[in-house]
Design goal:
This protein is mainly alpha-helical. The protein contains twelve helices and five strands. The strands form two sheets. A three-stranded antiparallel β-sheet has the order 1-2-5, with no helix packed on it. A two-stranded antiparallel ribbon has the order 3-4. A hairpin with a 2-residue loop joins strand 3 and strand 4. Helix 4 runs antiparallel to helix 6 and helix 6 packs across helix 8.
Length: about 290
């Protein structure tokens, strides 16, 4: 109740600021529309906010939801927050915003983005160099990020409508994944040198995500119980928590993979408990 009352207080203060001539003028400049100085034709601050281009909403969203992208910083390992998107997620969102969403919709005003137009646009998306159509999963991701932008706008009372909720976009795969057989995996491993061989073997037989694999330290490997303790994920050299709670559960090791991992520890230059399993020689073991 206390948080709710504070929220109402904050909003009421915001509304008073919106009616300030200076704020109205700034909103007008941001939205690219002209506001009459007096008379019945003058737009209200609420109308001005609705006419703000999507690019302005994106920048506001970055500031509040993608703080590491907005501030161009990398969080420390203790920056975890259940309400804060992981650094990896922020990087993903920023990539979709820059490459796909802003070039097409950045100059459009919030009220001018229509579900049917977004749906048609998603169907046309392809890579310029190859001409290959964007995967359904990627299109669905773009749709979800655009929906998140409008949900953010509704939360901040910039608009009352989220047109993206009516956009139809399937995330179903169009092709069946080509899954390697155990024999094919063994043949590939036979051609690889260490540490790449051990890394690929470990990934193939545990299903770890890339960041979880890179984020392993030797203290996370229990050779007696044959389990991996997945405690962190490393993306773009930023250490954070695994993607989901399920990801943090112990992962069983088969005897052969454990043997390969143990053999790698015996020969690797950084075998200490706190060392990275796949430490970078170029960084003298300080980074994976």
């Amino acid at each position: 109740m206390e948080r709710s009352s504070n929220r109402r207080l904050d909003l009421s203060q915001e509304h008073r600021h919106w009616h300030s001539p200076r704020i109205s003028e700034r909103i007008s400049r941001a939205s690219g529309c002209r506001c009459a100085p007096s008379g019945n034709n003058q737009q209200t601050p609420r109308q001005l906010i609705k006419s703000i281009p999507l690019e302005t909403l994106v920048n506001h969203y970055r500031q509040h939801e993608l703080p590491d992208m907005f501030n161009k910083t990398k969080p420390g390992p203790d920056a975890a927050d259940e309400d804060r998107k992981s650094y990896a997620t922020q990087v993903t969102y920023e990539g979709y915003l820059k490459k796909w969403i802003l070039p097409r919709w950045g100059a459009c005003r919030l009220a001018d983005v229509k579900a049917v137009e977004v749906e048609k646009w998603l169907r046309t998306l392809c890579f310029k160099k190859t001409g290959l159509t964007l995967a359904r999963g990627s299109k669905a991701k773009i749709r979800n990020i655009m929906s998140a932008l409008y949900s953010h706008a509704i939360r901040w009372e910039w608009t009352d409508n989220n047109p993206i909720t009516s956009v139809r976009q399937s995330a179903k795969r169009q092709k069946v994944p080509d899954v390697l057989t155990p024999e094919e995996i063994v043949a590939i491993l036979a051609e690889l040198p260490n540490p790449l061989r051990t890394m690929i073997e470990l990934d193939a037989f545990t299903g770890l995500r890339r960041g979880e694999l890179i984020g392993l330290r030797w203290e996370d490997v229990d050779f007696q119980e044959l389990v991996l303790h997945v405690r962190r994920s490393v993306v773009a050299m930023v250490e954070g928590a695994p993607k989901t709670e399920v990801s943090q559960k112990d992962v069983p090791l088969d005897a052969q993979t454990a043997e390969s991992l143990f053999a790698w520890r015996q020969t690797c230059p950084y075998p200490g408990p706190g060392d990275w399993v796949f430490a970078s020689p170029a960084m003298k073991g300080r980074q994976p």
